[in-house]
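Bug #77: duplicate submission created two jobs. Keeping one. Sequence:
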Amino acid sequence: MTKKVRIERVAEFIREEIAKLLIDGIKDPRLGFVSVMKVRMSNDLRYADVYVSLYGDEKQRKSSLIALQNSAGWVKSMIAQNLHMRYIPDIRFLPDDSLERAYAMEEVFNKIHQERSTLPFLRLELSELIEEILSSNKIMITTHERPDGDALGSLIGLWIWLEQKGKEVIPLISAPVPKMYSFLPRSSQIRHLEEDKLPRWDFDTVIIVDVASTSRIGEVNKYVKPTHKVIVIDHHETLDANGLMGYANSSYSACGEIISEIYINTDVPFSKESAIALYVAIATDTGGFRFSNTTSLTHQITSTLLKTGLDLEEINTRIFESFTKEQFELLRRILSRTEFTAEGKVSYSSLFLKDFQETGATLEDCHNLTNFLRDIENVVVGVLFVELERKKTKVSLRSRKVFNSGEFMMRLGGGGHRCAAGGTLDMPIDLAKKSILAELESSLKTI
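Kept job's structure:
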């Protein structure tokens, strides 16, 4: 069979299958009368452009096209059940009218994006998550701004697993990897937006780890288009109604545990590289296995990672016991300014722009310093206020398990874990202090 004949046969098969699904399968109420006119395959059989005739007035036609675009992932999964190929083509619905396509497609895609952003988060089971990932081919992985050990360890661990599954991977974050995590395997290969020149990338899927919102991945969000499949892997309790899909389970202590479960459930062995990355992910988010989110599963997974021969002393020294002079100077200033409120249940301190100018420290050097405020006797919540700009303040919370920091910060536009959360407020540091401390005092009255 020639390549041309094979392409034509695959196109005809897909046309027939979609025609059936239009009659029996797609239940979206926005879908009006539609006919499949033709299917054009890319030469590598990775994409299937499905040209459809749309009937009704302009509003009805656009609604039908939006319904079809939103169903593309499901249609692909249904075709996969009968089309026995190594790669199942991505489905792209296009109006058959070329003139209408020329002026309306951008508007349609934008409307799809807007409509999706108001839908509830679609929770997948772990098996469904793995299936969705494996149905993709070229994947960009990213995480939240100012990534911590869990974010970077999870990104690297997933990256290695994807490559073992034969996928093309683009790891991209908003800024360079923080110095304290530069020892992680592959950290120097993670691309970031502050590079002088970035290549043009072609990918079909975006995976976001350790956060469940495109709004928190910074400028990387500009690379995420309405036509991309976006998958979330997260372990935080705070989820927005943003139309994304993925696996979000707060019973895990770290996103790194979920990535480890993906290895285990697909029988992919841990390499030393992946084990280091995932150990750092889990160890940092459990505070060296001291925080209340540590579970028996945490220790089971860690035990498996240790079998690869990790140098625990070296890793733990780097992530828990190493202070730069800049960090030490910031800590000295934090402790000297510490105050208490809410009958001693809240300890708080501040860092100002001049502190960074005088010490040569960066925001990265604040990492984990809030823990010192929470660790004071009888304190329930430790809060660090950091002046980012004259009218912008970063707030970091660390709490005992009796207080849900994640829920508290979510009300203010932030988020996080039960015992560790944060956010950025568009207000001067003095106003941020007044607002947050008043809210905390009120919330802690019953504790």
